[in-house]
Design a protein that fits this description.
With 386 residues, the protein is of the alpha/beta class. It is 45% helix and 13% strand. Strands 5-6-4-7-8-3-9 form a 7-stranded parallel sheet, with helices on both faces. β5, α8 and β6 form a beta-alpha-beta unit. The radius of gyration is 27 Å and the shape is globular.
């Protein structure tokens, strides 16, 4: 919940807590000061081991106690004040696996490029900002570049940024298919799981399933793990398997016909060239989460256009996982029929978004990914209506 306005009782409690923290912090500050003074006064008598111990204690006091207490004091002192316009501030509860593990007051810059430009760009003789997802493909090239400069801090440079856009070496139109399934009820977990299973089997593995919610990932995993095993396809899943994300990706990369389910960290951080990744299936359009921080940024950066921009960038990031080499081939499937056509700019030039039924999506996937010469049309692209 938002911190403004704050109840008077909370302000009083914060002041009392701040005073107690000051009583705790003061002797720690004094102890560190005395230890540093000892290092200086006895510099000619302290042996190396004693000096290292004292220095380690001083670092530990600052990092683990003094700085932490100072942050809490600053937070408590700011509770009775109005949140500065350049920040957004809220109370939040952090949950892991449905359990409350932490509570805190959070403050973030509404536009983080301000401090970034001041601390980094202003001090640099030059800066190169590069990404495959700088521009989002809204259809307005000028607006796309302006948004990219605002998002990276380049708009704050004294001199205008030098823009450069390089074409891709890949033939995305020939190497990929993008399908939007139009006849699936995505609120029915059995139907959703059935769609994932059918598409994964059609691809023969090498499939990445992406989800916008961990609960949906787990529900699909529970329903398709055994059926995929019966098809001799191994299934791994973030938030289910007891392995960290990087290890799961390494295993997935090494096993050409494995399948992997994941969320944001997998979508943005996976690099699997070759046939180990030839199918991506997304459960829903990845709209931004409407939390307090996003609400503040949405108001500053353009409302619905800002939501569209973030969503196109997420789709572009996900699609970019498919083609990492000149001979890669891949199919991208969105299981959300409500994906608006204005998001199609997320995909490279030459790629056509096809709206098809699930059965047709399964057939296209199987045919397009079949080894050359073995499919019903020798792996030639299929266009809607054929």
């Amino acid at each position: 919940s938002e911190t403004d306005p704050v109840e008077p009782e909370l302000v009083s409690a914060a002041e009392a807590a701040g005073q107690e923290l000051a009583r705790l912090r003061t002797p720690l500050v004094n102890l560190r000061r005395l230890l540093l003074a000892q290092l200086d006064a006895e510099s000619d008598r302290l042996d190396s081991e004693s000096r290292r111990r004292i220095e380690a204690v001083c670092r530990g006091l600052e990092r683990r106690a003094i700085s932490q207490l100072r942050a809490w004091q600053d937070m408590l002192a700011g509770l009775g004040e109005e949140t500065p316009a350049e920040f957004t501030q809220w109370f939040g509860i952090e949950r892991i696996d449905g359990r409350d593990v932490d509570v805190g007051m959070y403050r973030h810059w509404v536009d983080p490029t301000g401090p970034f430009a001041e601390a980094v760009l202003a001090e640099a003789q030059g800066a190169v900002i590069t990404s495959a997802t700088l521009t989002d493909g809204s259809g307005d090239i000028v607006a796309d570049w302006e948004a990219a400069e605002a998002r990276t801090g380049a708009a704050r440079l004294v001199n205008p940024a030098i823009r450069a856009q390089l074409s891709s070496p890949y033939d995305y139109g020939g190497q990929t298919r993008v399908l939007v399934v139009r006849d699936l009820r995505k609120d029915d977990m059995n139907l959703l799981a059935g769609a994932y299973r059918a598409l994964f089997v059609a691809a023969g593995g090498g499939a990445l399933g992406l989800f916008t919610a961990i609960s949906r990932l787990r529900a699909v995993h529970q329903r398709i793990a055994a059926p995929l095993e019966a098809e001799d396809l191994t299934l791994y899943a973030q938030h289910v398997d007891g392995l960290d994300t990087s290890t799961l990706i390494d295993i997935f990369r090494a096993e050409e016909n494995a399948c992997l389910l994941g969320t944001d960290a997998v979508r943005d951080g996976i690099d699997v060239p070759g046939s180990s990744l030839r199918l991506i299936v997304f459960d829903r359009v990845p709209w931004p989460r409407p939390d307090i921080r996003h609400k503040a940024r949405r108001a500053l950066f353009g409302g619905r256009a800002y939501d569209d921009r973030l969503t196109r960038l997420k789709l572009r990031q996900a699609f970019g996982r498919l083609i990492r080499k000149s001979d890669d081939r891949g199919v991208f499937v969105m299981l959300d029929s409500r994906m608006p056509s204005r998001l199609a700019g997320a995909f490279p030039e030459g790629v056509t978004v096809e709206r098809v039924g699930l059965a047709e999506a399964v057939a296209i996937t199987e045919d397009f990914l079949a080894p050359k010469g073995t499919g019903p049309n020798q792996n030639e692209p299929i266009t809607e209506g054929n």
